[in-house]
Amino acid sequence: MNNFLIALIIGLVAGLIDIIPMIIQKLDKQDTISAFVHYFALGLIIPFVNWTVAPWIKGIIIALLTAIPIMIIVYPKDKKAIIPMILFSLILGAGIGIAGAKFIG
Prior knowledge:
By secondary structure, the protein is mainly α. It has one domain. About 75% of the residues lie in helices and about 0% in strands. The protein contains four helices and no strands. Helix 1 (about 5-25) runs antiparallel to helix 2 and helix 1 packs antiparallel against helix 4. The longest helix has 22 residues, at about 5-25.
């Protein structure tokens, strides 16, 4: 399968995993779409970054770095949202890194 298509699928799965709790909690539609697009895009970025670190570490670093601007915007409005954002960055970033290494190489 084409590596780009695999990356799209990885991003799609990560995005869906991230927004399921948001949908269950009936959070703002715009916030939910933003979160989905963030992880969908990371599925296209993380697998193609060529760093000499473990794939899960690469995924975590990139996911956290790209989440920081979002956290800066969210923090004044909802301080409690930062913890789940960090946790999902750790978990989904590592997952995208591992999946990218396994399926894309």
